Amino acid sequence: MRRFAQDIIRTPMSVEERASAAERVLSARERYVARGVATPALVVERAEGARVWDVDGREFLDFAGGIACQNLGHGPSAVVAAIHAQVDRYLHQCFMVGTYEPYIEVCRRLDDVWPGEAETKSILVNSGAEAIENAVKIARAATGRDAVVVFDRAFHGRTSLTMAMTAKLVYKQGFGPLATDVHRAAAPYPYRGVSTEDALESLELLFKQDVDPRSVACIVLEPVQGEGGFIPMPPEFVQALRRICDEHGIVYVDDEVQSGCGRTGTMWAIEQLGVEPDLLVSGKTIGGGLPLAAVTGRAELMDAPHVGGLGGTFGGNPVACAAALAVLDELTAPGFAGRAERLGSFLRTRLEEIAARHTLVGEVRGLGPMLALELREPTPDAAKATTAAAFEKGLLLLACGLYGNVIRLLPPLTASDEELERGLSLLEEALGDAGADGG
Fold it and tell me: Do 292 and 124 touch, CB atoms closer than 8 A?
């Protein structure tokens, strides 16, 4: 199998050989990879910018982005160059064995882009779920409390603790018992009739009947819910949560794993909501395609855990840190934010036009260029049909939402106008093929 995989990469193949290669890879996947890992019938050979090619030579526009990991597109030259340069120096040291500058520099840069005035420190880890777990550990150490409050439709990961924090059943069914002292309240969902007032009343009820706010270590919220359906949190809700946290001494944790790194037009989505968090969790795009995530927060909070209480063998791997520094250079470069803002306006306008022509589309929503279509019926059927039709046309799309009826768009923020227009046209064709044209 190793030799076969190398041959795919190195040896030019005919169309017949490529088709055979795809079949062999998928057959091997069925034999050797656990069933629980969901994968499509796509065997990737290479990727560049906003495009992916499979081993059959088919080209796809990528509006999935490795689930929000490719805000800069596939293989941005500065990131690739930084990775190559670091590989020639050393691959791994373990920050707890030998201190190295790339780790420290990423933490410094995260302080530079902090959405507020606080002096911050950071810890680097491998994934968003790991970062969320560490944010909870830090909050517990800082407050001496145990309870965690999360919200409906949240997604925070698939580890033991983060499964309990995540709302969707498919990610945790059969994997119990789940972590205790995790409590859930309603979050605003205007399209389905849940207002900011409803959500705040739910939190107040939670504090009266389930958990004393004086025992809550942290409240964790995505400013735009990702897997939950690309639902932006209203500024007034986030601001009310900030006041509640201040009143009760609760740590406010801002989960920006999917919404961060420019995805909403600003570096962090919370910048648009008028709130400074206590801790901010980042991941996905920050590693430029390599595993990296971070917890950044007020220095006194980050220093609360005892020495040795935080860490991990590969957390802040130097190659991933080198990539992250190049990513941060790109995200903070002059003109990048303006481009992202224009992209968001363009996408929203075009999606509104599509929605007006397709009665199955119930709502266009999002923040900046982090946008989605929610289909009216709370079932996954039409969304599945749409993403399948899009795939056949050469467009990679993802569905999400509690009901699986939301089509989310995650094109690279560096995609050309032509690529965006082409992708949107294919999306509309797929809606029609799936029976979503309304007539």
Answer: yes
Q: Which of 186, 188, 191 is nearest to 236 (CA)?
A: 188
- Asked whether the beta carbons of 230 and 371 are under 8 A apart, the reply is yes
pLDDT band at 268 (very low <50, low <70, confident <90, very high): very high
Q: Is the peptide bond before 177 cis (omega within 30 degrees of 0)?
A: yes
pLDDT tens digits along 190-216: 999 999 999 999 999 999 999 999 999
Q: How far apart are CA 235 and CA 223, in angstroms?
A: 9
- Alpha carbons 386 and 392: distance in angstroms, whole number: 10
What are the structural domain ranges in the chain? 2-10+29-75+336-433, 90-331
Specify the pLDDT at position 22: 81
Question: Domain 2-10+29-75+336-433: which topology?
Answer: Aspartate Aminotransferase, domain 1 (3.90.1150)
For 362-394, the DSSP string reads: EEEEEETTEEEEEESSSSSHHHHHHHHHHHHHT
Query: What mean pLDDT do residues 281-296 have?
Result: 97
Fold of 90-331: Aspartate Aminotransferase; domain 2 (3.40.640)
pLDDT digits (tens, 9 = 90+) for 359-371: 999 999 999 999 9
CB 76, CB 48: distance < 8 Å: no
- Asked whether the beta carbons of 228 and 151 are under 8 A apart, the reply is no
- What pairs with residue 150 in β-bridges? 184
pLDDT per residue as tens digits for the range 60-118: 999 999 999 999 999 999 999 999 999 999 999 999 999 999 999 999 999 999 999 99
Q: Are strands 251-255 and 231-232 parallel, antiparallel or unpaired?
A: unpaired
- Do residues 8 and 55 touch, judged by C-beta distance below 8 A? yes
pTM above 0.85, yes or no: yes
